[in-house]
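Build the 3D complex.
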Amino acid sequence: MCEFSEKLMAWLDQELPAEESTVIDGHVRACAECRREVLACRELSETMDAYCDAAILASARSPERATPRMVRRAFVGTAAVAAAVLLVFLTVSQRVWRMDSASSGVLPFAQKPPLAPAELEKSAPVETYGAQMPRKIRKPLRPLDAKRGENPWPEETPVYIAIPADALFPPGALPDGVGFVADVSLRSDGSAQRLRLQPQLVGFKRRGTQP
Amino acid sequence: MSGDFLPLAVALSQPDRYACEVAVLYRELRRPLLRYLVCLGLTGDEAQDVVQDTFITLQRHVASGGSRENIRSWVFRVAHNRARNRQNSYDRRFAESFDAEAHAVSDRTTPEQLVIEKEKFRRLEEALRSLTREERECLSLRAAGLRYREIGEVLSVATSTVADTAGRAIKKLAGKCNV
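Done.
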C-alpha cells in the first residue's frame, strides 16, 4: 500500500494544510494506485449522495402515487390537525377569558381572535410542508402510566399531534414558557373519540438534546 | 417547492429577526441534515420529523440569546442526538430498502440504468451495515457537507480522529462495493 494512502481522503476533502496538499497533488499525478483510490472515493461519495437523494424522494411521494391507505391516513391526519388547532384555540381562549374576566374585565381574548382562521391553518407546522411533502405524524406521546414499549390503546389507532401553542397566538397572549399538547384520537370514520389538552411548560418534557 | 417553506409556525407567525436567522439557516441546512439522517438509517419521514424538531430547538436557542458560534455544528449535534434517541430506528440500518425503480428521479433514466442504480444502492446498503456506528456517522456527516472540524464538534472527537475514521470507512466501503 502506498504511504500516502492514509492521507488521500483528507486531501480529497481539502482538509490538509497547503504545503502537505501540494506534496500529495504531485504524488497523485505520478502514482496510479493512489489515482485509482481517489477515483473510488469520488465514486462512492457520488453513490452515497444519489442514495440519500433517492431515499429522501422516496419519503416524499407525490399525491398521485399515494395508495388508498396513504390517502386515508392523510385525511385522518388533516382532520386531526384541524381538530387539534380548533381545540387548542377554543380551550386556551376560554382560559384566557376566565383569567381576564376575573381580574380586569378586559374583553376576552376569544372575542378578538389574533389571526383569521386561514392564517391559523397556515401557522400549523405540519401543514407548512405543503402538499408535496409527506404528512408528518409525530410518534405517539406515551401516557405517564404506560410501560415502555407497551401500546396503551391496543384496540384503536390513535393519532397524536403536538402543536406549539405559541405558534397560534400573538406575543403576550400566553404566559412565557406555557404551551399545550392536544391529544386527539379518531375513530376509523374520522370522528373524534378522545380529545385531551395538556398544559405544558415549553421544553419541559423534551429530551435532553441541548448540547 | 416545499423546500422553500420554513416549517416553523413560530417563525411564520412572528417574523422577527430571530425567525429570519432561523429561516436562513433552515434554507441552508435542511437538505444536508436530511441527507445525514437518512444516511444514519432513519426513514425519510423520521428524518423530516427530526429536522423540524431540531429547528424548533434552534429557534428557541436563538431567541433566548444562545451562542451563534459554530451554529452549523450545533444544529447537526442536536439532530444527531435526536436521531440517537430514536434507538429503534437508528439501529434499523436500512432494514427496509426502498425501491429505486419506483422513485426514479429523472425521466431520462432507462430501465437498464435503473437496474444498475438499484444494484449500486443495494451494495452500498450492505457495505454501510458493515461499518461501525462511528464510521457511519463520520461518513454521513461528511456526505452532508461538514468540514472535519465540524464533524469533530458534532461527534465530540478530535479532528485528526475524524480524518482517520473517514479514511478507514471509505476504504471499507470501497472494498465491500468492489469499487
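Residues 1-13, 100-104 of chain B have pLDDT under 50 and may be disordered.
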